[in-house]
Amino acid sequence: MTTVQTFTFNPFQENTYVLYDETGEAVIIDPGCVEKDEYQELYNFIEVNGLKPVEIINTHAHIDHVLGVAAVKRKYNIPFALHQIDEPYLKAVKTYASNYGFYQFDEPEIDRYLTEGEIIKFGNSELEIIFVPGHAPGHVAFVSHADHFVIGGDVLFYMSIGRSDLPGGNHETLIHSIRTKMFTLPEDYKVYAGHMQATTIGFEKKNNPFFR
Q: Required co-factor (predicted)?
C-alpha cells in the first residue's frame, strides 16, 4: 500500500508530497520547500520513517512547485524528472523569482523527461502518468490505481480549478484535461491537489461550479 504524506510549504502554501510504501522506497513530488525549517521538516520525516527517496517527480514547473528541487536533489543524490514541454518554464523561473522575493533560486538539472502512459515504479508501488495541460503546458498527474488516488498538481481543486492566466495556460485546454483525463477516473479516487485540501473525483463531478 502506498502512503501519501503531505507538507505545505512556501508563501504560496504549496502542497509537497512524499509517497512511500512498506519497502521504504519513496518518491518526492513537487518539493516547494524554501525556508530552513521547511527543509528540516521534510528531511526529519524521511529520516524518522527510514525512507529511501529514489526520485523527484514534478507535476509542472511553476515557481512554487520547484523552489526546493535542487537542494532536495543534492541531499539525496537522486534524479529529477519533468515533462519536456515544461522545461522552458523551469528555466524561466530564475528570470522572475526575485519578483516574489526569492533572490537565490537554484535551478535544478532535469535528469529525464516524463511521458504520458509511463508507469513510475518505486518499492511495490506504481504510478501512471497522465498528461493534463491547461494550467501549465507540460502539466502531468500521477495516478495510483492500486490505492485509488491521483496527485493532481494545479489542475483540479476542491470546488475549483487551476489558474489558466499564467504564461502557457489555457482555460479551454484545462477544462478538456479535467473532463477527459481526471473525470474519467473512478469516482472514489482521492485527489491530492497542489494547494488546499484533498477531494475526490466523484465530489468534484457533482459539485464543482466549473462543471455544472
A: Zn(2+)
Question: Letter for the amino acid at 91?
Answer: K
Q: Tell me the average pLDDT of the chain.
A: 98
- Tell the burial category of 15 from Cβ atoms under 10 Å away from its Cβ (0-12, 13-18, 19+): buried
Query: Edge-to-edge, what's the strand order for the sheet holding 52-57?
Result: 3-9, 14-20, 25-29, 52-57, 80-83, 112-114
- Would you say how long the chain is, in residues? 212
Q: Which domain holds residue 123?
A: 3-211
Q: Do 19 and 3 touch, CB atoms closer than 8 A?
A: yes
Distances (CA, A) of 93 to 16, 24, 88, 96, 171: 18, 32, 9, 6, 22
Q: How far apart are CA 212 and CA 40, in angstroms?
A: 42
SS (H, E, C) 65-88: HHCCHHHHHHHHCCCEEEEHHHHH
Among candidate residues 134, 135, 140, 150, the one with its CA nearest the CA of residue 185: 150
The pLDDT of 89-102, averaged and rounded, is 96
Query: What is the count of structural domains for the chain?
Result: 1
CB 20 within 8 A of CB 29: no
Query: What is the rounded distance in angstroms from the CA atom of residue 212 to the CA atom of residue 208?
Result: 7
| Position 212 confidence tier, pLDDT thresholds 50, 70, 90 | confident
CATH of residue 141: 3.60.15.10
